[in-house]
Amino acid sequence: MGDALLNLVKGFFTIIALPIIIGLTWSFGQELEKFTLFSLEFKAGILTYVLAYFFIASLKVVYNIGQKIISLALRFSKPLSETVPHFLPFFTIIILVVLWLATANHWHFRFEEYSVFLVGFTLAMHIILTAQTLREEDSNPFKAHYFMLITLVYMVNLTLIVWFLSWGSNKISLQSFWADALIHAKDIYLLLGRSLF
């Protein structure tokens, strides 16, 4: 009875969070448009990983290396070492830090476009392979735990990317990202409320 109730709560959370996810995705796209370097190359990186995942290889070995590095760094706490790697896209963060250092120090290196491409590629790899891992770990046929966790992973990952980008550009703001996302989510809730009642 307790597990069924918990799964019901997780499922309810996921359904309620869907408009927020849509709002965050919409707002994320708007924030990326402010950072011209991220407009095309980032999306190309995401698309390239999706195509590679379906037609070539998932690169799970690379993903596992990033997961293990984070787990090792947090080995002092078993719950953290098992949970945090799902939420932190290791390779994406490393590339974003390099990009920030280059931008902050006004280094003009020829590989900025490739770095942005790799940010999109590694972020897509992290989200897709984390989703696959969480889905495989959830034995419940309704996958309520999986849906709740992947919703949180997605929200945290988009927030992290915007936070890192806000370091390198004063046009991007974490506050405006979330404010716009919540406005979009509110509009979706209102639209759903009007159509249902």
Description of the structure:
It is a single chain. This protein is mainly α. It is built from eight helices and no strands. The chain has one domain. Helix 5 runs parallel beside helix 7. The mean pLDDT is 88.
Helix/strand layout:
Layout: H1 2-34, H2 41-55, H3 60-73, H4 78-87, H5 90-104, H6 112-137, H7 144-168, H8 174-196
Helix pairs in contact: 1-7, 1-8, 2-6, 3-4, 5-6, 5-7, 6-7
Highlighted features:
8 helices, about 200 residues, mainly alpha
Strand fraction: under 5%
Alpha-carbon Rg, integer: 18 Å
Unreliable spans are none
Average of the residue pLDDT scores: 88
The figure for the number of domains is 1
Condensed summary:
This protein has 197 residues and is mostly helical. It is built from eight helices and no strands.
